[in-house]
Fold this sequence. Notes:
This protein has about 400 residues and is α/β, with parallel strands linked by helices. It has helices at about 1-10, 25-30, 35-40, 45-50, 50-60, 85-105, 135-140, 160-165, 205-225, 250-260, 275-290, 330-355, 375-380, 385-410; strands at about 65, 75, 110, 150, 170-180, 195-200, 230, 265-270.
Amino acid sequence: MTHHLINAYGLPDDMDLLRVAPATEEDLKVAHSEEYLDLLCHLMPAIYENAAATQKAAQQHGLGEVRDRRTGCSTNDNPVIDDIWDYCLCYAGGSLAAARALASGRYRVAINWSGGMHHACEGKASGFCYVTDAVVAIKVLLGRFGRVLYVDIDAHHGDGVESAFLEQSRVMTVSFHQYDGRGFFPGTGGALYRALNVPLEAGTGDDEYHRLFGPIMERVMQVFRPDAVVLQCGTDSLAGDRITGLQLSVRGHAKCVHLIRSYDVPLLLLGGGGYTINHVASCWCYETAVAIGKEIPDDIPQYGFQRYYKSQGYKLHYYHDAHSSNSNDDARTKRVTKVKQRVMAHLDHLAALMAAPSTQPDEEPACPAGREDPAERLHRRCGNLDLTEFLIDLGRKQLKRRNIDLELNC
Length: 410
């Protein structure tokens, strides 16, 4: 529905459509264990239903009907469906191609609305996500860019992406998500200050949301200074979603895209959650227009899916800013202010850490020959260290490596 609506508005005329190959198993190994991928690629409904051993193995990896030991409830978020493996390769392939397009330097914005499956972990499916295309894409971006920022505006916590980069100093994850203390993938612990989670109450509308999002993202950009950004645009944070409780309008949701786009760093836009299908298509279509800097009419064109939009009056913007204001609720305003203060304090700590030489990224991105003068690279790696001390320390490390090599040869 999204793809056809984008076509109906004529937006592809202002874009390049990349026809891409599916991802391969090798591509996915940067984010998932070989054991999990081997299970996933051979899994079919008939085998799952008739082979007890396969069923048990699948359930251990979050596939099929799984019982939660804490609650005793069964969930089936990740059913074993026909062509499950091909489906995973296709949406991951889209994110891979988008990331490679940005890494090539030919594009500043790339989009894969079928991606953004942010809950899948190294060896486990979760929350409708079988493989984590976002992690695969970020790994590609790290081959070209020094620092990558991941921002998640889905109603649920981007836990799978966060957990994948807990030990990676070149990636920061920021998740704005509904948190009521009873679920919705709340963020917990992990990388000190580089995994930032902003809790939102059910009922949060445009006003409240952007009292947090704008200032926080401005500070994140100042402190972390990313060379590329991945923005997961899950639409279950929209008003009227079937299973969540946030109240963003389409314009309010798209304002996040506009803001991140305004920083003019290479930007990868991904999809994600969203459980009222017409709202999803409306939002991602409008955000495509925002990404390319084009305003489109509110009246939805005739394009074959009209019956889905009857409930929203055949309008793109079915829920307006005025409907989503919480500004008159003093108690809520105080809680939002408190959240903002805590997040800003967190970012101040990150700023201090980023300024310390010992916290500079310990992995340098691949850089084509001739792009940077060796002396400049040396000074950049030194940070605030005295050059003499740096060279002495470097010499010691080289001597240590040489002695180890001699011992091995003996």
